[in-house]
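Lecture 7, part B: from sequences to assemblies.

Below are the input chains for today's worked example.
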Amino acid sequence: MFAYVLRRVLYAVPILVGVNLLTFLLFFVVNTPEDMARMQLGAKRVTPEAIEKWKAERGYDLPLLWNGQAEAAGKATQTIFFRKSVRLFAFDFGASEDKRDIAAEIGERMWPSLALAVPVFLVGLAVCVSFALLMAFFRATYLDLWGVVLCVAMMSISTLFYIIGGQYLLSKLLHLVPISGYRGGADAVRFLLLPVFIGVVAGIGASSRWYRTLFLEEMGRDYVRTARAKGLAERAVLFGHVLQNALIPILTGVVAVIPLLFMGSLLTESFFGIPGLGSYTIDAIQAQDFAVVRAMVFIGTVFYIVGLILTDISYTLVDPRIRLQ
Amino acid sequence: MPVLIATDVLVWLLVAAGSGYALHCRRHAHLAAPWARVLRSPPAIASMVVLAFFVGVGLLDSIHYRPELTRKPEAAAKVYSVEVLSVLDWTLSHLRGRTEKTYSAPLATRSFAKEQVELPGGKTARAFPRLRSGGAHLAKEEHWASDVGWRIFRGLSFAAAILLAAAVAVKVLRGKRPDVPWHAGLWALGCVLVLLLPALVLSGGYHVLGTDKVGNDVFYQALKSIRTSLVIGTVTTLVLLPLGIALGIMAGYFKGWVDDLIQYLYTTLNSIPGVLLIAASVLMMQAVIDRHPELFATAAHRADAKLLVLCAILGLTSWTGLARLLRGETLKLSELEYIQAAHALGVRGGRVISRHILPNVAHIVIIAMVMDFSGLVLAEAVLSYIGVGVDPSTSSFGTMINSARMEMSREPVVWWALATAFGFMLVLVLAANLLADAVRDGFDPRVRVSALAKAAA
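Predicted structure of the full complex, as structure tokens:
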């Protein structure tokens, strides 16, 4: 098991390099370091000298990917790409282009992101599993049929509608919660209610239908027939046997998502003006702050890979037949 | 002068490919069987009828031309307008030309905003002015109710006439194919016609769904947006399928370093948040397109190039799911006896893939194609809303929602543009989802949920 995890961690290194290279290419095909300097300096202070100084201070005065003038190995290392990427692997994110410490910023912005993502995740899971159980309990009745129809209908509605409609209904008409914004401490609850609610509602359709399929698949198995044959009530079969076994694919499926909760939701955060990591990334793209974009994509990739490894480990925990080698 | 636009060509190629596939299926019983199962499902028939309406509008909107300008008799050469129009624009020319100054409510005769108007006595006052075209044919505004009623009645009677003809046709068809639930199709056709025909008749004199901020007819914009959605949902799969199929099967069949490399590729692509990757690629390509204006004859060509690029980017970033599915399936298949036998008989790798593996993963490809459609339509709206979608001059549901985003905070609320965009999108995506479900149930031997449920009950 340890050897397996170690190998997976080592596999992550080329993936991280690839992701870094891709981010780098996508960013610098459109922007040159000069463009970044102009954007950051502001229209008033743009002079050729100021741009040169800006670039030299931040190490953007080197070639992008290949330094033809340098010696031997320096051809690859004396470049913006190499210089900027290596430090990331030590989780040293450095400063953003406007000289703020990225690590500190992330530490601060992580909490609003978590405050939004964790409730959406937990409440969403609870709601979807309950709804799916309800449909599975009343399977092949009108309740089940209309439940599935409702799921399909909810899947077909655009997320934008949930957001715009929710803001209009709950904030503007009923004045229950603020439309957007965020404040720390206990006040945060008021600001988070609407985004959490919308996040949960928007996810019900797809997940409930998927979980229902899992429950029904589980109900067709032999041990369920045995349980019924020995005279267990339908309720006992459902909660005692089916639920436990169907939770295995559900939980192993969501394990991959857990590390990504830190990253927040890009769209929801920027719609509701929540100062989390998602809106941090979007803002950085708009401000052409390459240091922040690169750091965020790097962390996102790390979390994604951690999620994959956790999923594999969780399989071995719930199903002893699976061995990692 | 007919104009060839890249996405038009692709759309018609897709239509040709689809017809070819349908003909091919008709001739082979084993290919027709799953489709026959799909056709037995009432929701599938109903959604096919609804989708047929959308596809019809989209195809009409995919034949473009540049209208001839009225020329002076002495000029030798014909002069064409720079504006590129489609056949749909031509059929709806009464909607395209007539714009108002600003917002107006559905079926309104007066503007939504107050304006300075001159009274007969030479004085001015602030009032709601009459619209330029909405209800302009009415001699007196009191006739509004009877006129609208009469138009709706005319639309409904057209609908009833067509439905009657359709019912007779169904009667004949039912004799031939009694297993197809024709009544579901008839119901769906009824719903479409009852909504559409009165709207079309009304659109002759009113703005059926109001006008937007710059006074354009919302109904017309919604109809124009259909093509964009369909193009995104279908042309993207043209990029996605070859990549997903080729890489997925190669990874599963050749194993070893090929598998490692392809797995590395899709893990890398997957680990970058999707929205970020798409946003960055779109911004990059838009910058490239904007820097080379000489490549495009008209603004329509440029907008179309952006649409095509968006499709390509969506395809390039979303083939990973299909590839992973196909890899798993191919891994499983290549251990089976008949493939081993083929190897033992000395059949080459390429031939094993094309003769034995490809036909056996075809159901996964078809299911994935149908399932992806609705996701892509929804994704387009979100991307256009955050400004990395289609060109602002291309009408799409996303741009409609984007330009209407501030309207909910107005007093009184301007709801019609948003409601129209969301309504059209809901119908399109819902129909696509229902069809996708039926296709999945018809093609996938394992996911027969209803059968399972009956067995368990």
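Note for the exam: The longest helix of chain A spans residues 102-137. Keep this in mind when comparing with the next example.
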